[in-house]
Amino acid sequence: MASDAPRTLTVDEKFELITANTQETIRPDVIRNVLAVRPLEIFWGTATTGRPHAAYFVPAIKIAQFLRAGCKVKVLLADLHGFLDADKAPEATLEARAHYYERTIGALLRAQLTPAFSRDLLRLSKRVSVHDAVKASSEIVKSTGDPVMADGIYAMMQLLDEEYLGVDAEFGGIDQRKTFALANDTMTKAMGFKTRAHLMNPMVPGLSGGKMSSSDPKSKKKIAKAFCAPGEVEGNVPDGKTTMSVILKDQTEPTVFRSFSEISAAYEADQLTAQITKKVVTDGLTKLTTSIRSMFDADVEWQRIAAEAYCQPAAPFKSTPGCTPQMSSKKCKA
Description:
Strand content: 5-15%
Helix content: 40-55%
Number of strands: 7
Distance between the termini: 62 Å
Largest sheet: 5 strands, mixed
Structural class: alpha/beta
Radius of gyration: 22 Å
Number of helices: 14
């Protein structure tokens, strides 16, 4: 009788799975060397600022691939990093947002600030220039006005996270490349720590340009109104490996696409129209988020945390399980 257990992957197969669909990998030799002797330990961190959005499916899928490759994966909910990025996370909401992220990311699938960490942060601050530290976080921390010290501390804390989480590699978006490059140039030479590998996924574009940011509660309407130039693949068609079945223009039977190149060719030929693409995206996101929404609706504590973490301007109160008039009318403190 055949076993349902997945077969053991070779080192080469693990490496291919770990690096699949990433935009860039710094020091892939580190990954291969570790895989030859033991499971790779890797971490992914996210600052607990705005609400998790649809683009979080990209790292979630990648984390699932890491696990399939036998990696030990650590997820850092970076509340202190969020505090340093004060334009995004009011101090009063940090703890509630960390709890909100914990539940949300758990549905999609904490390093302590010890005295030793603090000492190493001070040591690192003596070895990294202000210019390099601020430059490393420039694509992540969006300050309004001149850079502040917190911008540089944010990057140095992320560098130390790799050491204190005891990992071999860090995974993040391509927007963190400057931070990863600083880690590659600094941590071994300046601090005596081991060299880590860094994997970067491409950024999911927002519907109005730039990288995707915090979720809009009216995402379906936003998708419907989004500009989607016919025949232009760049910035319009979701990248990556995918399989989908859709009914194309002037056809009655579904067409199955098994690769991104097939999707691109159909879009360029105007067989896969902007209207069809928008419907596929809307239906796909609805399907992907249904189970998460069900978990949220059944978890009164999660709803309470959401109300505290992302409080809305005062509005007429509507009865919702776990919500009170006080929560509904609470105003965020800047």
